[in-house]
Amino acid sequence: MPINYQQIHTKIQEIGAGARERKKTLEERRALARSLLASFSSELDVLKSKVDSAKAADSNIRCAVPLNESLASHHPTVDSVIQATLIAADGSQVNPDRHAAVQFGLVNVGAITLRLDSGEAPIISTETDLMFGDDLMPNGIPMSEGMVALKRDLAERRKLGELSEGVEGQVVTFTDGPIELWGAQGEDSKSFHEFLEKYKTTLSRLQTRGVITAGYVDKPSADLVVRLLEIAHADLEQTKGIREFHPLRGVSDRWLFGERENPLLPPGERSAVFKIQSASEKNYKGLLEVHFFYLNVGTEGHPWPVRVEIPRWVVDDRAQLDLLHAVLVSQCRMMGSKPYPYLLHRAHETAIVKMEEKQQIEQLLSMELRRNNEEVDDISNKSSAKGLAPRTKR
Asked: Vertex 378, ends 372 and 379: CA angle to 5°?
């Protein structure tokens, strides 16, 4: 028996026994969060000052920073979008596997282009990058899964840039996940910064052409606004130890904006726009500064807040911001009771690499190497053992 269910059962009972106390604590913290939101909703200058103080105490502090809209504000969508070109891109990856017979990596990006009100069918395109040999050793260091993910993120944004080039009229582009790149530390840091510079160059080209771009984060787990409320609640001494100050632990932004009984955001409406304060803000300057807003793509009685990350050039142009807002609401409604941008869903279907496709690529690569008299290794014994049928009792 692979799992000790007796131990699991005992632990589950312990978890159940603590449910009432956890619920009481969470309700108290949620009530405090609501109270702080009401108290500081319009105190934008005070909040900015408190964030500056927290940043002085901990330069890695990560939270929301208000701009010029009150914390509790909400904004309805504009009229339906009639004319615009929408481009969604999503990527998948195959990570190098040292246990495989052939070492390779792969990034596959799928993109969907749709011209609204044109009567034309969506245009589907893919781009596949197979990595082998020296490709897997950037700066002489074996490529990690994190670096493959960065390569995928860069490829997605570049695909948006390529497909949007020369398109007339308003262009709205979006990917799944944050705009802000998350990078590797230590040995991979040099490679990360190289990817980052290429990524920012791609963003700048989109900005120069007036292209709207965004990152769509479904079911966000971050507490950016809640963290702002904690900072607002801290006194001078608590601010000095802000890293350990978490009076609202367990309260999420998703609950704050999408509480089922009393959501801050009615269906289809967005929150105020916030800037992201984080250790990586130094990487995104000027028009590339990363901002976000929450958007309720759910329905009455079934709120579903998502986080939408945008660069500053979209924030500064209210018409672009309103167009993005309307496009995302319209796209999500196309998916019915499980709201998610339809084109992103289609892009994901296009991008995903199935197991049989991965195996076929490995076979083709092995055959080509052998045909050219290059040595091909065997799979590891560990991998072989995993493929054996499990033993049964007799």
From this structure: 130
376: in domain: no
281 within a domain of the structure (yes/no): yes
What pLDDT is attached to residue 385? 81
Per-residue H/E/C for the chain: CCCCHHHHHHHHHHHHHCHHHHHHHHHHHHHHHHHHHHHHCCCHHHHHHHHHHHHHHCCCCCEEEECCCCCCCCECCCCCCCCCEEEEEEEEEECCCCCCCCCEEEEEEEEEEEECCCCCCCEEEEEEEEEEHHHHCHHHCCCCHHHHHHHHHHHHHHHHHHHHCCCCCCEEEEEECCCCCCCCCHHHHHHHHHHHHHHHHHHHHHHHCCCEEEEEECCCCCCHHHHHHHHHHCCHHHHHCHHHCCCCCCCCHHHHHHCCCCCCCCCCCECCCEEEECHHHHHCCHHHCEEEEEEECCECCECCEEEEEEEHHHHCCHHHHHHHHHHHHHHHHCCCCCCCCHHHHHHHHHHCCCHHHHHHHHHHHHHHHHHCCCCCCCCCHHHHHHCCCCCCCC
Residue 42 lies in a domain: yes
| pLDDT for position 222 | 87
Quick one: residue 59, left, alpha or beta (phi over 0 = left, psi -120 to 50 = alpha)?
alpha
pLDDT value at residue 78: 81
Domain count within the chain: 1
What pLDDT is recorded for position 1? Answer: 56
Q: Which regions of the chain are under pLDDT 50?
A: 187
Task: State pLDDT tens for residues 88-123.
Answer: 999 999 999 888 888 999 999 999 999 998 888 999
Residue-number span of the structural domain to which 343 is assigned: 27-77+221-319+327-347
Flag whether 38 is in a domain: yes
pTM summary value:
0.93
Q: Give me the pLDDT at residue 389, please.
A: 65
pLDDT confidence of residue 357: 94
**How far is it, in rounded angstroms, from Cα 222 to Cα 228?**
12
Q: How confident is the model at residue 390, as a pLDDT?
A: 67
